[in-house]
Write a structure and sequence with these properties.
Mean pLDDT is 80; it is low at 1-7, 9-22 and 25-37. Helices cover 5% and strands 55% of the residues. The protein has two domains: 1-30, no CATH class; 35-205, Trefoil (Acidic Fibroblast Growth Factor, subunit A), CATH 2.80.10.50. The protein has helices at residues 32-36, 74-79; strands at 2-4, 8-16, 19-26, 40-42, 48-54, 57-61, 67-70, 85-91, 101-109, 112-121, 124-132, 138-139, 147-153, 156-161, 167-175, 178-189, 202-205. It contains two helices and 17 strands. The longest helix is centred in the middle third of the chain and has 6 residues, at 74-79. The chain starts with a strand and ends with a strand. It is globular, with a radius of gyration of 21 Å. The strands form two sheets. Strands 4, 5, 6, 7, 8, 9, 10, 11, 12, 13, 14, 15, 16 and 17 form a 14-stranded antiparallel sheet that branches. A three-stranded antiparallel sheet has the order 1-2-3, with no helix packed on it.
Length: 207
């Protein structure tokens, strides 16, 4: 007696103490090419929605490409969609065990979905927002610039680039040496040997 489908195989092995006994295996079929290219698969769970804060400033999509931290009133926090960020989890396999989660960040502005991605210009690394049509079901190694390792740091979190190791989302002054109430979002190298508060983000669930 055998029952099977594309993902499970269960066999009847006998009756013991009046109980029907079965044994079997369940597994997930993964495209061989995905394994070869280290493809990340979107979690079946819906993305969670959060405000991102650093030193009292909120992360906001200020214009088409620019992401920054700025002060917002409570009314602006509730009414602006571009200060609320979705976190979508990805994995290489359901049993993947690594420190933190691999995530994809995006927000909405004027009914457009805008994803957060690393951008390299020569030796310089930047963070930009880029329009997308749909949340991708799979991201291969050509799209790692959109993925980050989300890790806990005390009661807060840090976001490390999957493409650029030891580089984290952080904020810095709009002009070096010129403190300003608006801080731009950047990708900063950080060894974690010393505390860098610019890389530590307070992730708050939207309500």
């Amino acid at each position: 007696m055998m029952a099977s489908d594309s993902s499970c195989s269960i066999s009847f092995v006998g009756i013991e103490d009046g109980l029907f006994c079965f044994q079997g295996n369940c597994f997930q079929l993964v495209d061989e090419t995905d394994l070869q290219t280290d493809t990340f698969h979107k979690s079946p769970n819906k993305p969670s929605l959060h405000w991102m804060k650093n030193k009292g400033l909120f992360l906001v999509l200020e214009d088409v490409e620019g992401l920054c931290f700025k002060d917002l009133t409570e009314k602006e926090q509730q009414s602006k969609s571009d200060c609320k960020f979705f976190i979508q989890t990805y994995y290489k396999s359901p049993a993947q065990e690594k420190e933190g989660r691999v995530v994809f960040l995006f927000t909405k502005k004027d009914n457009d979905h805008m994803m957060v991605r690393c951008h390299q210009s020569g030796k310089d690394l930047h963070i930009k927002a880029e329009r997308m049509d749909v949340i991708p079901d799979k991201i291969d190694n050509t799209g790692y610039e959109t993925l980050f390792h989300l890790r806990k740091y005390g009661h807060k979190v840090i976001f490390e680039s999957c493409l650029h190791g030891s580089h984290f989302l952080a904020f810095q002054d709009m002009m070096e040496g010129n403190p300003h109430p608006v801080k731009k979002l950047v990708l900063r190298k950080w060894s974690q040997e010393e505390v860098d508060e610019t890389c530590i983000i307070n992730k708050l669930k939207c309500y």
